[in-house]
Amino acid sequence: MRVCELKLSHFRNYRELRLQFGEGINIFYGRNAQGKTNILEAISLLATTRSLRASRESELILQDEEMAHVTAEIDREREGDAELTVSVFQGDKKTVRVNGMKRERVVDLLGQFNAVFFGSIDLVIVTGEPADRRHYLNIEISQISPRYVYDLGHYKRVLAQRNRLLRELRDRPRPPQEMGLDVWNEQLIKYGSTLFDKRRFYLDRLSLLAEEIHAELTDGRERLEVKYLPSITLPVKPTETKTAETVELSTNLSTVSTMANNNTSSVAEVNPNTVRESREDAYLHSVAQEASQGEKEPAPQTQNSPAMPVNTLESIESAFRRQLHGVGTEEARRGTTLLGPQRDDIAFFINGTDARLYGSQGQQRTVALALKLAEFRLIEEHVGEPPVMLLDDVMSDLDDHRRKHLLSWVRRRCQTFITCTNLRSFPKDLLAEASIFQVTAGTVTSDVRKRPLPTRNSESLPEQSVGQPVEPSGESSVGELAGEAPAIAERHDLAPVSLPAVSGKATDKPG
Fold this sequence. Notes:
Elements: E1 2-11, E2 14-20, E3 25-29, H1 36-48, E4 67-75, E5 82-89, E6 93-98, E7 101-102, E8 115-119, H2 124-127, H3 130-142, H4 146-171, H5 181-217, E9 224-229, H6 249-261, H7 272-292, H8 312-326, H9 328-334, E10 345-350, E11 353-354, H10 355-358, H11 361-383, E12 388-392, H12 400-410, E13 416-420, H13 428-433, E14 435-440, E15 443-446, H14 479-483, H15 485-491
Parallel strand pairs: 3-13, 3-14, 8-12, 12-13
Antiparallel strand pairs: 1-2, 1-4, 4-5, 5-6, 6-7, 9-10, 10-11, 14-15
Helix pairs in contact: 4-5, 4-9, 5-8, 5-11, 6-7
């Protein structure tokens, strides 16, 4: 999976920008607040539909403009090429398009393209509030489980309605039979239980990978534990019972098999959402098979054994219902919901010690890096091809050992985008094979020695535009940058080159 071409229109500090990238490592360097992170944010937006930093989506729009557009040509090994577009409008409205066709829901873009972002802002996963960790969890799961986004959206709406009713009951108490909470309780239990189940499932997988990667980063000197802290006491998950994700497995796999037998599996005839959900089911099926290997036959239930629910999801619903009933009086007194996924947390322990409270900043940063690399592995397992890696100014934050480990980890493994202030942290052999871009005041220039492979539409572009920024009509270039090429080359131990014209204009929204 790789980004062949990226086009920005009125996005952050770029009025118009068109870039083509190399298959391997792409480096954007320049001083702070020039627009480097904005390019990574645009790519991340296509994967998650969310801004990395903005509290409001309208902050992504260039000042005095009404809308912004991010479009990319994506090369996918498993599902073929795709053109993805996210448009952001004043008022925080968004629309998405896949291959030029507008989708009814923004979440329909999820799963079309996968990317993992790692930067200094990710330190809050370890050091921040529980809400920061829940946000991370929601974003991570949504990339590989479209159904999770559906359940999360419904849960949030139900929670808002239930809290509104609880506030009314706090201010104007009523008899229990007139409270009207029963309907909202069942909806909260229905959608909340699926979130509990899916979070536990994915954290079980993520924690194993993160602990393994963390041991590599620390040369085995430190042992990481990742623990899910749900707001309710979850029942023990029997290996042999079905989870919320695997309940529909047989039906969906049968549907895929039927489509194949009827020769209806062409890209034009198959709903992309069905393809992505079938891919999720296949992944869950392989995980279930892996977990069941070596399991002993479960002991038969005796007549005195307690009756167990049919599957794990029903057991979670039963536990959630029982514990929610137990706090009903206190909820009415406080006017808010006290239990549910909105109060979950994750804890990280290094050699048994809480990393959030007692870990050094270096240890906390290593935990965050291990989580992100584990997320990469998890997506790779699920999708069947590596996602794109986005590394925002991490070279200066990591010591030599972790920096070398990270570069060796991504090198020749996936398409990677890296931002930095200079090129001194990179070995010369890596720079020789990387695509290098300089970002200055919202303009981008390319090292023309390395040209990425042309995209599908490259034959319609001017010859000099392949593998470098494309200057939009009407935009002036910054000629003095080309004149600085020898000095830049000498400063970074590069062979002298002639820099091409640049595209984009500086504004007051640097990144």
